[in-house]
Amino acid sequence: MNDHSPTIDTTRAETFRHWTPVTIRFSDQDSMGHINNVSYAAFVEAGRNAFVTQYLKPDSHPGIDFVLARVTIDFRAEMHYPGTVDVGTCIKRIGNTSIVIGTGLFKDGRLHGTAESTNVFIDLATRKPCPVPADIRAELERQLSEAAGV
């Protein structure tokens, strides 16, 4: 990863340009009556996949996919049923074969969690890391500059 990447503040809704609304299910609650930590991870996954799959399409990049290598979640506030989680997603860093995605989980305009996910691009034939495709890199670099400028 580039050690000179800009600082991206995923605690602020203004940072994000890409949003994925996720409906909170009754079954997302735990015995304490708040949204379970596993559900937070599912919200992060929904945002991450919606973000990455808009760039990595099988017809434009045959034989390439991405895998999740690491995810960290900071639980910042309890969340309760019912409602919708607005999952903000942005690019935080771009490496040779991987990207780091930042996520903010907002409900009713309030921050409830942040996450950072590392995805590695892989060659499906060899199952080994491969370079981030040039066209995807260019778009993600544009978005990284935008998010840093907020």
Topology:
Blueprint: E1 18-23, H1 37-53, E2 64-75, E3 84-94, E4 98-107, E5 110-123, E6 128-129, H2 134-148
Written account of the structure:
It is a single chain. This protein is of the alpha+beta class. It has one domain: Thiol Ester Dehydrase, Chain A, CATH 3.10.129.10. β4 and β5 form a beta hairpin. The two termini are 22 Å apart.
CATH fold category name: Thiol Ester Dehydrase, Chain A
| Integer average pLDDT | 92
Secondary-structure content class: alpha+beta
Number of strands: 6
Q: List low-pLDDT spans.
A: none
Number of helices: 2
CATH class: Alpha Beta
If classified by CATH, what would the architecture be? Roll
Keywords, separated by commas or semicolons:
150 residues, alpha+beta, 2 helices, 21% helix
